[in-house]
């Protein structure tokens, strides 16, 4: 495999903080890699340097000549006045430019221009490309191409930016939190798209299902260094534990040896001055190793929650509409202490509307909401709160409360509480404007939990939080004694936290399901017909025209039709085996690459076979 990216001795500081020191790594053509680290350790900074937006303090970044790079930033922005279409087709690619002109001509119904462009589309074989572009736009629900970008929400803007990167069809994709603001159907589509795409991939994401199913390489940034794991997320967790255990053992051995060397240093001043300079140098090296911490800093959430009485929250036939659009239709539920409920549904189906009615921000059009007297809401909103960028971190906390009470009956002051959430003493007096996106989210989470809620409402809490913080938050929610209501597209998080679901199906319909995300997916599969290929036929079958003459399969076509059914079944079985192998983390690097390449070929073969099956099935 040819080398795509080479990074040598990369070093960078943020003010007085050194983010990484002499990093060395590379990517081969076809690698699917993810970068994992705690918030504030420089993940986004590293991506910006690789994409050429930032200049590193030292070291070199080399991308092979002729390689086209596509970069999705964490918080994309476009100048006001630009339309969605102009933002999506903003690249310099010849095909992109041609499709942009063709779409504009269609919109203006400029027939002479359309005729000329059709000839160019034919000459460049651009029709397949246009089809791929439209698939990307449809899957990401980008339909209002003439809408100005300044009217878009943050989530809509992220999807537009993602589409703009994907339609360029780059050789090297750099993606910073690509699943943020995507609903679950979009995440599933993007997961499959990136798995099948031949582009080399480097991304930052907190979505652990996504990592497991897409990536074959994990980079971990820790203590200014980079560690590489040849496998998916599950493999990374196993090998990371081994690395930490080995490091702890080395530190412990160094501490034992240091005691002997310290005694020698104390007893032999002449040797220190003359004969054993090498041993003195070794002593100070040993002291550096022994001075490291053997346990990683961890965030243990043990925040006191207010007492929750027997009556929590009752919804009786609650309905809500906006501009004639029914979002919640006669929904009833009686919340009880200890419930952990996840909310699923496409964007715009009413999820946030329900949350706002529960907390009293919105009033229902009909029905009743009966709130218990002891309920204390803790509402973590998707859009967060507007933290004062000019305030210091400790001021944000101390202005809410000087004393925070813990679950074991103790208390903490603001500084102790910040340390509890992994904000070191040095960060207490840092301005909020200097924090990373993830650190701001962690600070916001603190402001929600420190009010001792007994009913937690979390709207997309996983966006921008690092994987390690998410793991601790999951542990906390599992032990939380009150009620938890979570909106999230993070499938792993939902599996860990919730035991039932509210599924927003559209048209105001909300279905309750007793189980987590994976159990719900298994339930849906059982509801499907036993012949999924024929079901696919029903989805795409076109209505026959009255003038169409009835047609029968020829003998040869009938044989081909029967062979295709067997072929599709065989390909499906091989696909499952390959995916299991890739997710096992047990494959050697060469075998991993071969399996990944074979999966791409197999999926293409499967698509062609299914399309031919559908074509023949119309006359079967």
UniProtKB/TrEMBL annotation:
Coiled coil regions in record: 554-612
InterPro entries noted in UniProt: AAA+_ATPase (IPR003593), ABC_tran_C (IPR032524), ABC_tran_Xtn (IPR032781), ABC_transporter-like_ATP-bd (IPR003439), ABC_transporter-like_CS (IPR017871), ABCF_ATPase (IPR051309), EF_Hand_1_Ca_BS (IPR018247), P-loop_NTPase (IPR027417)
PROSITE patterns attached to this UniProt entry: ABC_TRANSPORTER_1, ABC_TRANSPORTER_2, EF_HAND_1
An example Gene Ontology molecular-function term: rRNA binding
Residues covered by the ABC transporter domain: 5-248, 313-531
UniProt keyword annotation of Cytoplasm present: yes
Any Gene Ontology biological process: regulation of translation
Assigned keywords, A-Z: ATP-binding, Coiled coil, Cytoplasm, Hydrolase, Nucleotide-binding, Protein biosynthesis, Repeat, RNA-binding, rRNA-binding, Translation regulation, tRNA-binding
PANTHER family found in the cross-reference section: ABC TRANSPORTER ATP-BINDING SUBUNIT, ABC TRANSPORTER DOMAIN-CONTAINING PROTEIN
Membership in a protein family: Belongs to the ABC transporter superfamily. ABCF family. Translational throttle EttA subfamily.
This protein's name: ATPase
Organism: Geofilum rubicundum JCM 15548
């Amino acid at each position: 495999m040819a080398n795509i990216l080479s990074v040598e001795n990369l070093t960078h500081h943020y003010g007085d903080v050194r983010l990484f020191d002499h990093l060395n790594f590379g990517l081969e053509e076809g690698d699917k890699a993810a970068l994992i680290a705690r918030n504030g350790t420089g993940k986004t900074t590293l991506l910006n340097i690789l994409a050429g937006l930032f200049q590193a303090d030292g070291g070199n970044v080399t991308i092979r000549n002729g390689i086209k790079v596509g970069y999705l930033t964490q918080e994309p922005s476009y100048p006001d006045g630009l339309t969605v279409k102009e933002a999506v087709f903003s690249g310099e690619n010849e095909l992109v430019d041609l499709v942009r002109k063709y779409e504009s001509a269609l919109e203006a119904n400029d027939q002479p221009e359309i005729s000329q462009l059709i000839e160019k589309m034919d000459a460049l074989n651009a029709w397949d490309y246009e089809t791929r572009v439209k698939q990307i736009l449809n899957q990401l629900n980008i339909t209002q191409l003439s809408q100005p970008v300044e009217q878009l929400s943050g989530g809509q803007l992220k999807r537009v930016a993602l589409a703009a990167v994907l339609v360029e069809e780059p050789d090297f994709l750099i993606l910073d939190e690509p699943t943020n603001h995507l609903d679950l159907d979009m995440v599933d589509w993007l997961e499959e798209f990136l798995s099948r795409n031949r582009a080399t991939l480097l991304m930052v994401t907190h979505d652990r299902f996504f990592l497991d199913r897409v990536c074959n390489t994990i980079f971990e940034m820790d203590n200014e260094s980079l560690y590489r794991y040849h496998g998916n997320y599950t493999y990374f967790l196993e090998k990371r534990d081994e690395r930490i255990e080995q490091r702890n053992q080395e530190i412990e051995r160094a501490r034992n040896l240091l005691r002997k060397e310290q005694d020698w240093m104390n007893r032999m001043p002449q040797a220190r001055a003359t004969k054993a300079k090498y041993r003195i140098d070794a002593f100070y090296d040993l002291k550096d190793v022994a001075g490291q911490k053997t346990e990683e800093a961890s965030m243990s959430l043990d925040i006191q929650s207010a007492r929750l009485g027997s009556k929590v929250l009752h919804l009786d036939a609650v309905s809500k509409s906006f501009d004639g659009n029914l979002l919640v239709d006669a929904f009833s539920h009686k919340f009880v202490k200890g419930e952990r409920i996840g909310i699923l549904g496409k964007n715009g189906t009413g999820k946030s509307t329900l949350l706002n009615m529960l907390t009293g921000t919105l009033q229902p059009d009909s029905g009743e909401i009966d709130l218990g007297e002891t309920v204390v809401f803790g509402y973590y909103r998707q859009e967060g709160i507007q933290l004062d960028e000019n305030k210091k971190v400790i001021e944000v906390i101390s202005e809410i409360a000087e004393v925070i009470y813990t679950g074991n009956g103790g208390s903490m002051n603001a500084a102790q509480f910040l340390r509890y959430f992994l904000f070191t003493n040095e960060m207490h007096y840092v301005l909020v404007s200097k924090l990373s996106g993830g650190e701001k989210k962690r600070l916001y989470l603190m402001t929600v939990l420190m009010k001792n809620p007994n009913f937690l409402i979390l709207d997309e809490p996983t966006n921008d939080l690092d994987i390690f913080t998410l793991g601790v938050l999951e542990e906390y929610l599992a032990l939380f004694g009150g009620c938890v209501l979570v909106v999230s597209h993070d499938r792993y998080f939902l599996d860990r936290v919730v035991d039932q679901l509210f599924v927003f199906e559209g048209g105001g319909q909300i279905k309750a399901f007793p189980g987590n995300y994976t159990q719900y997916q298994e339930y849906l599969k059982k509801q499907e017909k036993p012949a999924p290929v024929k079901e696919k036929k029903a989805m795409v079958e076109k209505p026959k025209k009255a003038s169409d003459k009835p047609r029968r399969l020829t003998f040869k076509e009938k044989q081909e039709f029967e062979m295709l059914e067997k072929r599709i079944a065989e390909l499906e079985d091989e696909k499952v085996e390959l995916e299991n192998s890739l997710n096992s983390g047990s494959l050697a690097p060469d075998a991993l690459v071969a399996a990944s390449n074979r999966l791409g070929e197999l999926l293409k073969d499967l698509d062609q076979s299914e399309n031919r099956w559908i074509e023949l099935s119309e006359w079967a």
